[in-house]
Amino acid sequence: MRVDIGDLVAELKALRKGRGLDTPDILPRIGPALRTTFSLAPDTGPAQARTVLSLKLTELAARLHPDFAAAVATALGLAEDSRTRLYGDRVALVARQIHRDRRTASRRIDEGIQLLAQLAIAELSKATPEDRPEPAPWRTRALRTWVVLDRDVTEVYEMRRITTSASEVREVRLEVSVPVPENWDSTTPIDDPEIVVLTGGTLQARANYSSSRVVFDLELAQPLTEGNEHEFFVRFRFSGARRMGPFYACTPSFPCEFFDLHVRFAADRPPAAVWKVDGLRMSEVNDSAAPRGPIRPDSAGEVKVAFRDLTPNLSYGIAWDERRSLGSDPARPAHEERRERNRHGKQDSCGE
After folding, report:
1. 266 to 270, 272, 286, 302, 348: CA distances (angstroms)
2. Closest CA to 221 of 200, 198, 199, 196
3. For the whole prediction, is pTM greater than 0.70?
4. Are strands 247-250 and 201-208 parallel, antiparallel or unpaired?
5. Is residue 320 a contact partner of residue 273, using CB atoms and an 8 Å limit?
6. Domains in the chain with CATH codes
7. Rounded to whole angstroms, how far apart are CA atoms 12 and 109?
8. Could you list the pLDDT tens digit for every one of the 352 residues in the chain?
């Protein structure tokens, strides 16, 4: 059985709550991802499950980069000085250990759990010779995105502020995922969307890694060094070669502390419904059965949502039902409505 890293991260975060591994009712917190990764049989009792998880998680945590090993061990209640404490107390303990505030400690814990999950899955599949996963080369402090859907051409503006724990970063790789164009021949290159770096760097390379994924390298205006920050501003313009789907989501590969999203619909043609997407798999973003909370555009046709401490490889944003986005204009021919709908439908994801 293949284990999804998003599922494993979610179960590890559930496991750390309360008293962590010392929680009396530990079995309900052990989901299929943990059971598969650590070979726990369905009839495994709480004492045995606690022992197995404690031994294996301690071993994996010790193999993490030193910046994360102690934070993860403390958060999960593996370390002796953190056992029996509640999770909030353990976060405070990590904060004291790293001489930072609780919010920074929480981010350090989340990053460490992500790395631990990667290492656990690699152990399960024996897919990598590396004994210790490296920290993310850079992370997003803040991502602010504006999606403009009320014009003839759909545009997306992204302002991103990043930092790094590496000695130096000169270039970052980003990506955007969009649906395959209709009647597309794979031998024909597509330059849609147009990508323009407005400030903060230079577009160095662009490649269509697949029919639906565009990857590009951005050379920073100046090298980013450890502890410093850099901001860049990018515009994506969709000319119509690709037909967008009805959602916008950020699916970060590296940690993202804050994501602020503004989507502007035509005020006179609002979508039939809009939903907030908060930490779903990419395949579930546009799934009506997935847990999505309804939200309503304001009088200007705008939707604004914000997210903090995004989990890598999960999706955050909004989805909408565009069936009534044009209203019902009896004077408008049906084929014009269909063409208009195709132009305004939007699907985009921001990878990091």
Report:
1. 6, 12, 21, 8, 18
2. 200
3. no
4. unpaired
5. yes
6. 5-125 (no CATH), 139-351 (2.60.40)
7. 11
8. 678 888 999 999 999 998 888 888 899 999 999 999 998 888 888 888 988 999 899 989 988 888 788 899 999 988 776 665 789 999 998 998 888 889 889 989 999 999 999 889 888 766 444 444 556 789 899 999 999 998 888 899 999 999 987 788 999 988 887 766 566 555 555 666 888 999 999 998 776 656 567 788 999 999 999 889 999 999 998 876 566 678 999 988 888 989 999 999 998 888 999 999 998 888 788 888 888 889 999 999 999 999 988 888 789 999 999 775 444 343 333 333 333 333 333 333 444 4
**102-125 helix and 46-62 helix, angle to the nearest 10 degrees:** 100
Rounded Cα distance between 138 and 335, Å, is 47
Beta carbons within 10 angstroms of residue 271's beta carbon: 24
